[in-house]
Amino acid sequence: MKWTKLKKQEALWGLLFVSPFIIGFISFLMGPMLFSLYGSFTNYNLTSKMDFIGLSNYKRMFTQDGLFWKSLYNTIYYVIFSVPLNAVGAVLMAVLLNQKMRGIKFFRTIFYMPAILSGVAVYVLWMQLLAPSTGLVNTLLHFIGINGPAWLFDPQWTKPALIIMSLWSVGGSMLLFLATLQNVPSQLYESAELDGANMIKRFWHITLPMITPIIFFNVVTSIIGAFQIFQEAYVMTDSGSGGPANSLLFYNLHMWNKAFVAFDMGYAMAMSWGLFLIVFILTLINLKLAPLWVRYEGGQT
Q1: Does position 188 have pLDDT exceeding 90, yes or no?
Q2: Rounded CA gap, 87 and 46, in Å?
Q3: What are the φ and ψ backbone dihedral angles of 51, each rounded to 5 degrees?
């Protein structure tokens, strides 16, 4: 195909307009990724020369670093429980806030507000709420005759404490489900009601199938986000100590300690690629399983 002068000019102008993205992608994403990939095969501590050592960092990660498996277990535990609970909580909250009643916009705003609050202040607040003797959570449990646990001071309750805390920001996902619910045709509910379907059946056979694409999106992004948990454990465990018995030593926190406390940067880069592969494989599995349960408009899967 022979290019005319006009087509060449259009192609050049097109490249010119997309060049900021291309330059940014190579400089701030692809470049650092390739650097970290090479660094994962070296012995590097930020100040030393990058000495190539082959697969030694990966071998050490799987066979010599006991805290690697501990951090991976803590992270998987958090993912397994936090992702489903947040998805279920977001769906149920969206269904409740999708009702037509006076003042519903006020309640939607109230339940969404925690999602825009983040950072150290929120974690400090939860540390106060979960205090064993003076915290509001244990105080409320005491009123109903339950002796609350030590939460962040008990290795058996540290991860459940953070899982409960993650429900604080469920309003962000709720907003996505709420927007989807409002696009579900009301005729479907009216027809089902005429056929004698009760509220539970309408929810199970109409609401859930219609919002499965957003549930799928939420699950995939939530898994990726949950595997990257770091700030909570760093702030709430005395600057990354990992909590009692390393019960809150999550993968990213262990990687941070190796990189910026021990300055074992080559090993930390190997850990980062290990996390990338784990998340990548789980995402592929989710994409493979999606046609079995995700339903799109028109009956497509």
Answers
A1: no
A2: 40
A3: -85, 125
Residue 175's alpha-carbon distances to 132, 221, 243, in angstroms, are 33, 15, 33
Q: Measure the CA angle with vertex 102, ends 194 and 185; round to 5°.
A: 35
CA distances from residue 265 to 172, 216, 276 in whole angstroms, order as listed: 35, 35, 16
Buried-state track 121-139, b at ≥16 Cβ within 10 A, e below 16: ebbeebbebbbbeebebbe
Alpha carbon 278 to its chain's center: 14
Long-range contacts of 54-57, Cβ-Cβ distance < 8 Å, separation of 24 or more: 57/266, 57/267, 57/269, 57/270
Cα 192 from chain centroid?
36
32-89 pLDDT tens trace: 999 999 999 999 988 888 999 999 999 999 999 999 999 999 999 999 999 999 999 9
Report whether 270 contacts 40 (CB < 8 A): yes
**With DSSP H G I counted as helix, E B as strand and the rest as coil, what are the percentages for the chain, rounded to 5?**
75, 0, 25
**Which element (helix H / strand E) includes 205?**
none
Type of residue numbered 43:
N
Q: Residue type at 293?
A: W
Structural tokens at position 11: 């192609």
Secondary structure of 100-123 as H, E, C letters? CCCCHHHHHHHHHHHHHCCCHHHH
Single pTM value for the model: 0.91
Q: Smallest Cα–Cα separation from 98: which of 192, 212, 201, 174? A: 174
Q: Kindly give, in sequence order, each residue whose CB lies less than 8 Å from that of residue 148, ignoring residues fewer than 6 positions away.
A: 132, 135, 137, 138, 141, 142
The pair of structure tokens assigned to 221 is 């992004």
Query: How far is the C-alpha of 292 from the C-alpha of 221, rounded, in Å?
Result: 19
Pairwise CA distance, residues 172 & 221, whole Å: 12
What are the backbone angles phi and psi of residue 65, rounded to the nearest 5°?
A: -95, 100
